[in-house]
Amino acid sequence: MAKPPVMQDWPGLIEAYRSWLPVSSTTPVITLKEGATPLIPVNSIAERLGRGVKVYVKYDGLNPTGSFKDRGMTMAISKAKEAGCEAVICASTGNTSASASAYALRGGMRAFVLIPDGYVAQGKLAQALVYGAEVLAIRGNFDRALDIVQEIAKKYPITLVNSVNPYRLEGQKTAAFEIVDALGEAPDWLCIPMGNAGNITAYWMGFQEYKKAGNCQNLPKMMGFQASGSAPLVFNTTVKEPDTIATAIRIGNPVNREKAMAIKSSGNGEFLDVTDSEIIEAYKILGQEEGIFCEPASAASIAGLLKRKAEVPENSKIVCVLTGNGLKDPDCAINNNDASFHTNLDPDIQTVAQAMGL
Ligand code: AN7
User: Fold this and answer.
1) Gap from CA of 318 to ligand 1 centroid (Å)
2) Which of 93, 139, 250, 337 has an alpha carbon 20 to 30 Å from 354's alpha carbon atom?
3) Which residues lie across from 325 on neighbouring strands?
4) 280: three-class secondary structure by DSSP
5) Cβ–Cβ contacts within 10 Å for residue 260, how many?
6) How far away, in angstroms, is 196 Cα from ligand 1 center?
7) Bridge-partner residues for 40, per DSSP?
8) pTM passes above 0.90
9) CA 190, CA 205: separation in Å to the nearest integer?
10) Residue 67: CB within 6 Å of ligand 1?
């Protein structure tokens, strides 16, 4: 009998893609075995598009701390460790802080995380606290927090692990490698939510490197989506008071703006905004029709694809990136679903059977 594939064989993305990454034999590899996330067909979305289109989601919410940030953080923290660093800092809408906290802990470093007070989803805040980070909540938004941590990292011997740290993008580009390795080619479209635009930049790097090496023949069209209330890249502006239910991408002044704009001006990218209600509609479709629970920011990739339905090429292959796990934001889930939830029932058979409609 053939031996089944064993997940334990997966060494984490630095080992898996070592020759593509700026690591040497002496780099200490700090890993939680991130990467190797599934590419799942989503027929409910494909059916809405018709014309032979195939749609997959790259479910990066299955990473060890529940988001794609782990791909970048294994690299950033390993390189920080290699450089002898003892503390890291980041600003975060939640996922970066969760990931930085976990990887810094494993690397034996302190983690300081600055977050916008009241605008980080419960699951993410819980993670930073559980992983023992020093959590600093400011009365200000993410953009302000990022300004502060950039200044602190300049002044003190603390390594910045936001996506201005180039090792973050190096790690994150492996998601593009995994997609090509799984499909045998690049998709026609890659649909992805944008906040600071680090991830879209990393994917673009990954696809380009693979194409150059002959691992794929084509490059995907990069479809970047932002929430309408926080869409500085779509409208080519800075948003002073960004607002959206998708708190992960509640960002008004993206730090990777120029890199994102370069993708767009090269003719390989298109940016579009999606409203909160379009995000929630996509979020519900994934939950109710696919059994896939992502966080609202991630659902922007599906919302954007559905909004661009008329432009999808016939028989194309599309990958939507689900950047974060739905469990991160239980409040959003509880407030946005169509489930029948019967509460305060008398604890007897008759009442329960009646509530069941029997
Ligand atoms: C689920 O955690 O910026 O365009 O501080 O958590 O690379 O910024 C999170 C961003 C998409 C946007 N989806 O990625 C942070 C943070 C989820 C996210 C994005 C984020 P970028």
Assistant:
1) 21
2) 337
3) 294
4) helix
5) 24
6) 7
7) 57
8) yes
9) 13
10) yes
